[in-house]
Amino acid sequence: MLTGPADFPRLIADIGGTNARFALETAPGVLDRIEVLACADYPTMEMAIRTYLADAGEAAVRHAAIGIANPVTGDWVQMTNHHWAYSIEATRLALGLDTLLVINDFTALALSLPHLPGHELVRVGGGEALAGAPLALLGAGTGLGVSGLVPTPGGAPVALAGEGGHASFAPFDERELEIWRFARARFGHVSMERMLSGPGLKLIYEALSHLAGESWEPKTASQISAEGVGGECVRCREAIDTFTAILGTAAANLALTLGARGGVYIGGGIVPKLGDYFARSPFRARFEDKGRFSAYLAAIPVYVITSPWPALTGAAAALAAHLDG
Ligand SMILES: Nc1ncnc2c1ncn2[C@@H]1O[C@H](COP(=O)(O)OP(=O)(O)OP(=O)(O)O)[C@@H](O)[C@H]1O
Hints:
By secondary structure, the protein is an alpha/beta fold. The protein has helices at 45-55, 88-94, 105-112, 174-187, 198-211, 221-230, 234-258, 277-280, 283-288, 294-298, 310-323; strands at 10-15, 19-27, 30-38, 63-68, 76-78, 85-87, 99-104, 121-123, 135-140, 144-152, 155-159, 264-267, 302-305. A six-stranded mixed beta sheet has the order 8-13-12-9-10-11. A five-stranded mixed beta sheet has the order 3-2-1-4-7, with helices on both faces. A two-stranded antiparallel ribbon has the order 5-6. Strand 9 (135-140) and strand 10 (144-152) form a beta hairpin. The longest helix has 25 residues, at 234-258. The chain is globular, with a radius of gyration of 20 Å. The N and C termini lie close together (6 Å). The site of adenosine-5'-triphosphate has 21 residues, from helix 5 and helix 6. Belongs to the bacterial glucokinase family. One of its GO terms (molecular function) is glucokinase activity. Keywords: ATP-binding, Cytoplasm, Glycolysis, Kinase, Nucleotide-binding, Transferase.
């Protein structure tokens, strides 16, 4: 289908387990009226969309794209870390849309990578990115999103739609084995997401306190990272150091799996808020601590994505590609 000015504005959304980010795309790649709604404030996704469109004063949207934090395997969508569930087709009809494209949020984020300006990327070690090689992407927020952008011969790169955040956590040392045991008693299978997420940071903090024989004061993930980075809470510092080390293991595993010599990109709601600490954290040393593949990993640059709304850019690109056939 060829598109023209009449097809704008388009509704673009990035929906995670905590935050639903909305925008109107008013011309190709131009995002306006960006708003963040708390998922918990709305009983359904459709209600959140209706609220956003009403607040934006926009009723005449025909095409929409949503990046959402769960696998998208058919018409029925069930979020992993929030209770929203819906039929894509029923939602499209209810909202009077011609097009409702729903893709995984990290697939959308992967599509944004070629569009991100250099000043919205903070490099953490490594050498030069290898042109034409796959890119790896992971990001901790309410859950752990994982994707990659893989080149194709002569065509557009393909963004992977996987659920790598639910692959098993691989402890690196005795301390992480103890944390794994603590988590195993609570959850059974311990996925990477059980560690690398806001709830995961809280779990690491609790596990470390338990292992030290201390009673722990309940803290939010934001408090743990702020007091850990600031140095006023020793156990919080240990927790955020452990979190970033485990992220190093996960990022290196993904880089090896994808052959991501084009670079590893880190998004999500947690790491970009850690500021300068992240470059000083155990992340990079752990990333390169891979035995016979240490030199391979040492060459790979890692970039923290500091763009405020990167997945919206990717969802808009996916919608444009879909409409242009
Ligand atoms: N400064 C911080 N330090 C640590 N954790 C934080 C910080 N700020 C937010 N969080 C945690 O990050 C999570 C929210 O992340 P994000 O904004 O990426 O949400 P989301 O897009 O809804 O999540 P997802 O896409 O993973 O489902 C919450 O668990 C919150 O506790």
